[in-house]
Specification:
By secondary structure, the chain is an alpha/beta fold. The protein folds into two domains: about 140 residues, ATPase, nucleotide binding domain (Nucleotidyltransferase, domain 5, 2-Layer Sandwich); about 170 residues, ATPase, nucleotide binding domain (Nucleotidyltransferase, domain 5), CATH 3.30.420.40. Helices cover about 45% and strands about 20% of the residues. It contains eleven helices and ten strands. The strands form two sheets. Strands 3-2-1-4-5 form a five-stranded mixed beta sheet, with helices on both faces. Strands 8-7-6-9-10 form a five-stranded mixed beta sheet, sandwiched between helices. β6 and β7 form a beta hairpin. Bound molecules: 5'-O-[(R)-(carboxyoxy)(hydroxy)phosphoryl]adenosine and zinc ion. 5'-O-[(R)-(carboxyoxy)(hydroxy)phosphoryl]adenosine binds next to α5 and α6. It is found in: Cytoplasm. It is an enzyme of class 2 (transferase). This is tRNA N6-adenosine threonylcarbamoyltransferase. Keywords: Acyltransferase, Cytoplasm, Iron, Metal-binding, Transferase, tRNA processing.
Length: about 350
């Protein structure tokens, strides 16, 4: 018998994603984004995002079904992001998922979006091992997770105490007058800069913090240091060397992320590190993670950038894992949980 056909729906923020997965095979994945509409405001406007989901959902679903070459009636279960995310955006996806599940007479699984960022790695490469350490880095989250079973047993080891990695990059992008979202622009400039030209502090580097916050991150002090550097250069009439600032800033963020992720693998005796989330498109993160995992004898799994940003495949992958693990579906009364725990 073939594996069940899972329809995955993602609508936590500005991306409307729909994907179809059978077992660990991705049949199709279609994403629409409202980012262009938000860009001129310099940040996500929740109401615009919710409306865009409403407009994009059916066309996105139709394209995903067509690309997979399946009919809606063949779907065996529906999985949807139940949180964390923007309540209005989540509500659109959850309402659609429930309506589809009820009309098809199939179960619906409300799953955790953050864990989905890790699950997708099993669709775009070899199957994931049962146990691994996960690093999820995006504009909304920077979390270090210990995974014993993707669908049923995920523990948060640590996370950011203030800004998420992508958020810190976006804020530094704004400080340097770069377009929103600044992350990819800061990354691009960083590649042209000299890492040693400016020295920025690492968050939580003091001895007492290293103990207490072994797996936590903090980027707001770093962002303030960048702001002071820019102000003092401008105040003294010097040119702000944006590429050097970006390189040093990027190094500080990625040094913390990769060092702590590798440390967690060693502490938890895991030989695989899985990285996901929109920020994992960052070139220095990929380089440092590869170098440090190789040195520590760890297997590094980072999906191609397209599957790192929010998408329906990550949700379908997690739904498929829930079905495989025999988990009960969600009760039909479930709603959005903007700060959903693991
Ligand atoms: O996962 P994602 O698409 O959306 C959520 O935040 O959930 O991640 C988007 C974030 C933004 O903050 C964006 O600036 C950042 O990821 N980002 C990057 C890069 N590409 C995307 N940050 C640094 N370097 C990049 N290459
Ligand atoms: Zn995300």
């Amino acid at each position: 018998m073939s594996s069940p056909l899972i329809l995955g729906i993602e609508s936590t923020c500005d991306e409307t994603g729909v994907a179809l997965v059978r077992g660990e095979t991705l049949l199709s994945e279609v994403t629409a984004t409202s980012m262009e509409e938000h860009a001129r405001y310099g940040g996500i406007i929740p109401e615009i995002a919710s409306r865009a989901h409403l407009e994009s959902f059916l066309p996105t679903l139709d394209s995903a079904l067509e690309q997979a070459g399946v009919n809606l009636e063949e779907v065996d279960a529906v999985a949807v992001s139940a949180g964390p995310g923007l309540v209005g955006s989540l509500t659109v996806g959850i309402s659609a998922a429930k309506a589809l599940a009820a009309s098809l007479g199939v179960p619906v699984y409300g799953v955790n979006h953050v864990v989905g960022h890790l699950a997708v790695a099993g669709l775009v490469g070899e199957s994931l091992p049962q146990r691994f350490v996960g690093l999820v880095v995006s504009g909304g989250h920077s979390s270090l997770l210990s995974v014993r079973d993707l669908a049923a047993d995920v523990e948060e080891l640590g996370g950011t105490l203030d800004d998420a990695a992508g958020e810190a990059f976006d804020k530094v992008g704004r400080l340097l007058g770069l377009p929103y979202p600044g992350g990819p622009h800061v990354d691009r400039l960083a590649r042209e800069g000299d890492v040693t030209a400016v020295r920025f502090p690492r968050g939580l580097a003091a001895a007492k913090d290293r103990q207490r916050h072994r797996y936590d991150f903090s980027f707001s002090g770093l962002k303030t240091a960048v702001a002071r550097h820019v102000e003092s250069a401008q105040g003294s009439g010097e040119e702000v060397r944006r590429a050097d600032v970006c390189a040093a800033f990027s190094e500080a963020v990625n040094d913390s992320l990769t060092a702590k992720a590798v440390q967690a693998c060693l502490d938890y005796d895991c030989d695989t590190l899985v990285v996901g989330g929109g920020f994992s498109a960052n070139s220095r993160l990929r380089q440092l993670a590869a170098r440090r995992c190789e040195a520590a004898g760890l297997d590094l799994r980072i999906p191609p950038p397209r599957y790192c940003t929010d998408n329906g495949a990550q949700i379908a992958a997690l739904g498929a894992a829930a079905v495989r693990s025999g988990l009960p579906p969600s009760p039909m009364g479930f709603g959005p949980d903007s700060s959903m725990p693991l």
